[in-house]
Amino acid sequence: MKTNILILLWLFVSFNAYNQCKGFTKKECVPQIKPFTYNGQLNMAVLNPGDVAELIVTFYKGQDYRLFVCAQENLGKIEFKLLDSERNTIFYNKEHDMVNYWDFHSNATQQLIVQVRVPPLEEEVAVAPSGCVSILVGFKE
Fold first, then answer.
1. Which is nearest to 115 in space by CA: 55, 73, 71, 69?
2. Helix, coil or strand: residue 36
3. Which of 78, 82, 87, 138 is the most exposed place for a label (fewest CB within 10 A)?
4. pLDDT tens by residue, 13-68
5. Could you give the CA distance from residue 91 to residue 113 in angstroms, rounded to a whole number?
6. Which CATH number is 7's domain given?
7. 3-state secondary structure at position 41
8. Contact assessment for residue 61 and residue 112, using Cβ atoms and an 8 Å cutoff
């Protein structure tokens, strides 16, 4: 019985966090992708300090793109990399003043890996802050 209650509580908390992240993404992140057209895919997760997440995205030949990483302020500056299928770095925002987007032209249809990293906490706290991180892709029409 206790296990069922704990599972239901965990599902409720997870669902609530997902909905809050979805609301944050739609309200705060999607408008910032302009002048590119948002592709409509919500790629988001609730992450903690020190977490790393990856997303595989298909980019099409001849298209101009904006890759945009948006996160809640309490997580700090988010690092992101764009990697090819062999995990070679194509772009790393740490080498570009921690910008939160990168505009580029795709010369080939390819699947690339977007890797995001939340900075670890500098000091230990009882409860680490979690927050929403969104990866959005826009294209020029």
1. 55
2. coil
3. 87
4. 444 556 789 999 999 999 999 999 999 998 999 999 999 999 999 999 999 999 99
5. 11
6. 2.60.120.380
7. coil
8. no
Q: Nearest CA to 101 among 75, 58, 136? A: 136
Task: Give the count of domains, the chain.
Answer: 1
Helices and strands (H, E) in the chain, number of each type: 1, 9
Distance between CA atoms of 80 and 30, rounded to whole angstroms? 18
Instruction: Report residue 136: phi and psi, to 5°.
Output: -115, 150
Label residues 72-89 b or e (16+ Cβ within 10 Å = b).
Answer: beebbebbbbbbeeeeee
Domain membership of residue 120 as a residue range: 2-139
Average pLDDT of the chain, as a whole number: 87
